[in-house]
Amino acid sequence: MSVNKSAAQAEVGMTLDEVREEILRDYRIVHESREASLLGRKEVLTGKAKFGIFGDGKELAQVCMAKQFRNGDWRSGYYRDMTFMFAIGELTVQQWFAQLYAHADVNADPSSAGRSMNGHFATRSLDANGEWKDLMAQPNSSPDISPPPDRCRACSAWRRPARCSATTPRCTATRTSATRATRWPSAPSAMPAPAKATSGRP
After folding, report:
1. Is-above-0.85 flag for pTM?
2. Beta carbons of 134 and 127 less than 8 angstroms apart
3. CA 28: distance to chain centroid?
4. pLDDT tens digits, 158-177
5. Does residue 177 or residue 119 have the better pLDDT?
6. Which fold has domain 2-141?
7. How many CB atoms lie within 10 A of CB 154?
């Protein structure tokens, strides 16, 4: 056991006391995050908060991820990343509860002043005067971003790119340029009328 500790200490350049302090700090973050999740869920279930998304069960992985995060890095992640935000020092438990209640003061909820969905954590890129901060000197978080869906030009269904094909039930058209040209002429007035449903009766 002592040999392993010595190897670990030599690898990271930390003394045993520093390792102990780091472990206790991590445990405190994990514990506070779990308690915040449990209390937040109770607030939602009793009607004191309207909606909440919580990160219980994901604390340890997020603390580990935070250790690899450096100033200048960007996170655009998961709405359950509260522990990660606690660990990088960009969110306090009080600020987390402020966003749970949609507090309209930017000092209370620096992510969005109550304007965004819960758990959409963001850091401030502009200072109080509207000037850009040095983003390379701070950890950065953007509210969750997803690629927009794409409308299939063959069947007009909204889908993620490349997910609509001949095997998809709602899309039986082959995605060739000839098919698209036939189904989607350039002139809107020339678009074919939708097919009428038939009951199968004569």
Report:
1. no
2. no
3. 23
4. 555 455 554 445 454 444 44
5. 119
6. Rossmann fold (3.40.50)
7. 22
**Start-end ranges of CATH 3.40.50.970 in the chain?**
2-141
What is residue 139's predicted lDDT score, i.e. its pLDDT? 94
Q: Angle 2-12/16-45 helices, nearest 10 degrees?
A: 90
Q: Is 183 helix (H, G, I), strand (E, B) or coil?
A: helix
Instruction: State how far the Cα of 70 lies from the Cα of 88, in Å rounded to an integer.
Output: 9
How many Cβ atoms sit within 10 Å of the Cβ of residue 91? 25
Count of positions (residues) in the chain: 202
Cα–Cα distances in Å, from 10 out to 15, 19, 23, 72? 8, 11, 17, 27
C-alpha separations of 108 from 59, 197, 201 in Å? 23, 56, 65
Beta 74-75 vs 140-141: how paired, if at all?
parallel
Provide the β-strand partners of residue 197: none
In 105-157, DSSP assigns E strands to 140-141, 150-151
